UniProtKB/TrEMBL annotation:
Domain TIL: 4-60
Keywords of this entry: Disulfide bond, Repeat
Domain of life: Eukaryota
CDD domains tied to this protein: TIL (cd19941)
Protein name in the entry: SCO-spondin
SUPFAM superfamilies: Serine protease inhibitors, TSP-1 type 1 repeat
Pfam family of the protein (one): TIL
InterPro entries: Compl_asym_regulator, Ser_inhib-like_sf, TIL_dom, TSP1_rpt, TSP1_rpt_sf
Length: 183
């Protein structure tokens, strides 16, 4: 009889057993060296080794791929998004998320389930913004009195997207212009 540490059981190999033995194997942080079972002291069936303990469900690791997907679905895809836990704590690359905990960024959420972050990626609504005004057009009359000049702007900086709001405000501007008498 082999003595195993507390909480561990000695197991001989069974045909259907094999890797993964630990959360590191399950989350692919560590490769399985063989498909077969390794004889020795292991966590009980249905549990995994993690940080020296046997756990029923593994935590998740925040990967570069997950952060990139969250970034791609944020309103500003050129900047890394703020990723927070449900308790409002910042999450960073390589950090562990506990089982059943949720992380969120802008409009997307990910929930940890047995070592895997299951994400629902949603593009955020992006409200439109006005572009700068165009230059003033020439006066509508070249001589002989009162005319008008116009300028315009579009809702293109940025255009509304993903159900975001359209720009609010005038798109054209008019002012009067006085011209000299005609010859």
């Amino acid at each position: 009889e082999v003595g195993c540490p507390a909480g561990r059981l000695y197991r001989e190999c069974l045909q259907e057993e094999g890797c993964p033995y630990s959360c590191a194997h399950l989350t692919r942080q560590m490769d399985c060296f063989s498909d077969g079972c390794e004889e020795g002291c292991h966590c009980p069936a249905g549990t995994y080794q993690h940080d020296g303990a046997c756990v029923q469900e593994c935590p998740c690791l925040v990967t570069e791929e997950t952060l990139r997907e969250l970034q791609n679905h944020s309103a500003n895809a050129s900047a890394l998004p703020a990723v927070l836990t449900a308790q409002g704590r910042w999450v960073s690359l390589g950090q562990e998320v506990q089982p059943r905990d949720t992380i969120r960024s802008a409009c997307s959420t990910c929930t940890c389930h047995n070592g895997q972050l299951n994400c629902s990626f949603t593009r955020c609504p992006l409200d439109g913004g006005f572009a700068p005004w165009s230059p003033w057009a020439p006066c509508s009359v070249s001589c002989g009195g009162l005319g008008h000049r116009t300028r315009a702007r579009g809702c293109t900086s940025p255009p509304p997207a993903n159900g975001g709001k359209d720009c609010v405000g005038p798109r054209t501007d008019i002012k009067y212009c006085q011209t000299p008498d005609c010859p």
